[in-house]
């Protein structure tokens, strides 16, 4: 089964053709990041406009790279939630138009479910059940993935997402948007024990995260130093901050894995590109005899191949929408499957 997948939830316009949820026939991404960089973050109105301009060309290119026309496609999958509403609407309406014109089934896909599914194309033998750490710019969840479309949130952030904390700390250190990747690179050169930073815990919720106190601690260190006319060593501060975030993510994730007695762990979302997080999880999983999967760097950030992968399993489970499908800015991963034709 060939799925044409479309993603436009934030600042990447992407389309892909994916076979049977596991094989990428094409994957095209038009990134707007250079334009948003000028403003230090994503400007929603600009994002919507750029999606409108790019989507036709991106979808056409994805079909052409797969060596196909719409006649070779069996279903259209599209990210419908969560994300920037104006951005999501571009992809959803484009997909609805294609579905109406061709009669192909329309499959709505939850963005975080698709981040998890990036692992299905990268690891052909990976199957639920497993425990997933979903860490992106807007979300930090520990998810019990019982089946491809059956998920339960075990832990979540109480304030900032991990990616958001990385980006805000990086911005205060003068790095360009999105700062997570820059901070990660610079941290490789620094001493992770140079600065003592908090490891916030949430009382009574051992799997929940809190990153805002950590972020504020770094921002205060930088502001206090600059008021005294001092500059802090950016590599050491980056390394200390990265270690604090990774300690918190891995600590809660491994505790949940132990308590739930799971044997397979999966990392997903933009922050799963973090080099320390990947190294640490490799070590910890090996020490405990667990299997740990994460996507290749090319599939960690937003892309449509992951939407095609999750779309395949949503379709198999019967989650198909009609022309009343709407985009939603927020939506729990637990109720991410919508069915309009039961
Ligand atoms: O999943 P994603 O591409 O978009 C959302 O759905 O939000 O995640 C983007 C986030 C950004 O906050 C970005 O800074 C972060 O992922 N990120 C990283 C790294 N690469 C991307 N954070 C830490 N280390 C990285 N190497
Ligand atoms: Zn994402």
Keywords summarizing the entry:
alpha/beta; Nucleotidyltransferase, domain 5; 5-stranded mixed β-sheet; binds 5'-O-[(R)-(carboxyoxy)(hydroxy)phosphoryl]adenosine; binds zinc ion
How much strand content do the residues show?
Answer: 15-25%
Separate helix tally: 10
Low-confidence stretches: none
How many strands in all? 10
How large is the radius of gyration?
20 Å
Overall residue-averaged pLDDT value: 96
CATH fold-level assignment of the largest domain: Nucleotidyltransferase, domain 5
What string, H for helix and E for strand, traces the elements in order? EEEHHEHEHEEEHHHHEHEH
> What characterizes the major β-sheet?
5 strands, mixed
N- to C-terminal distance: 21 Å
CATH architecture of the largest domain: 2-Layer Sandwich
**Taking strands numbered 1, 2, ... along the chain, how are they ordered across the largest sheet?**
3-2-1-4-5
CATH class annotation of the largest domain? Alpha Beta
Amount of helix: 40-55%
Find the CATH superfamily of the largest domain. ATPase, nucleotide binding domain
Whole-number tally of structural domains: 2
Determine the structural class based on helices, strands and strand pairing.
alpha/beta
Account of the 3D structure:
With 342 residues, the chain is of the alpha/beta class. It folds into 2 domains: 2-116 and 300-316, Nucleotidyltransferase, domain 5 (2-Layer Sandwich), CATH 3.30.420; 128-297, ATPase, nucleotide binding domain (Nucleotidyltransferase, domain 5). Helices cover 42% and strands 19% of the residues. It has 10 helices and 10 strands. The strands form 2 sheets. The chain has a 5-stranded mixed β-sheet with strand order 3-2-1-4-5, sandwiched between helices. Strand 6 (130-135) and strand 7 (140-147) form a beta hairpin. It is globular and about 65 Å long. The mean pLDDT is 96. The structure holds 5'-O-[(R)-(carboxyoxy)(hydroxy)phosphoryl]adenosine and zinc ion (ZN). Residues 10, 115, 136-138, 163, 166-167, 178-181, 184, 269-271, 273-274, 301-302 line the site of 5'-O-[(R)-(carboxyoxy)(hydroxy)phosphoryl]adenosine.
């Amino acid at each position: 089964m060939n799925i044409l997948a479309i993603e436009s939830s934030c600042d990447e316009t992407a389309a892909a053709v994916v076979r049977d949820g596991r094989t990428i026939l094409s994957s095209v991404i038009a990134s707007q990041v250079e334009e948003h960089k000028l403003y230090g973050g994503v400007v929603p109105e600009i994002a919507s406009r750029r999606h409108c301009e790019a989507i036709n060309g991106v979808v056409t290119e994805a079909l052409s790279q797969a060596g196909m026309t719409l006649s070779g496609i069996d279903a259209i999958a599209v990210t419908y939630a969560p994300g920037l509403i104006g951005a999501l609407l571009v992809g959803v309406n484009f997909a609805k138009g294609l579905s109406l014109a061709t009669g192909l089934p329309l499959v709505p896909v939850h963005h975080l479910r698709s981040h998890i599914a990036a692992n299905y194309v990268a690891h052909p033998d990976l199957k639920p059940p497993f425990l997933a750490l979903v860490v992106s710019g807007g979300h930090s969840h520990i998810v019990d993935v019982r089946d491809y479309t059956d998920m339960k949130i075990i832990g979540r952030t109480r304030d900032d997402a991990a990616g958001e904390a990385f980006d805000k700390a990086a911005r205060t250190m003068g790095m360009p948007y999105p700062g997570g990747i820059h901070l990660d690179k610079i941290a490789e050169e620094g001493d992770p024990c140079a600065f003592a930073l908090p490891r916030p815990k949430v009382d009574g919720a051992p799997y929940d995260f809190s990153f805002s106190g950590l972020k504020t601690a770094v921002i205060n260190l930088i502001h206090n130093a600059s008021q005294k006319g001092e500059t802090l060593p950016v590599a050491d501060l980056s390394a200390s901050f990265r270690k604090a975030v990774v300690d918190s993510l891995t600590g809660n994730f491994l505790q949940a894995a132990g308590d739930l007695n799971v044997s397979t762990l999966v990392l997903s979302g933009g922050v799963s590109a973090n080099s320390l997080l990947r190294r640490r999880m490799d070590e910890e999983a090996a020490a405990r005899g667990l299997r740990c999967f994460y996507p290749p760097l090319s599939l960690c950030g937003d892309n449509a191949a992951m939407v095609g992968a999750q779309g395949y399993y949503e379709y198999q489970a019967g989650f198909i929408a009609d022309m009343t499908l709407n985009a939603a800015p927020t939506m729990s991963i637990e109720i991410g499957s919508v069915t309009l034709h039961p």
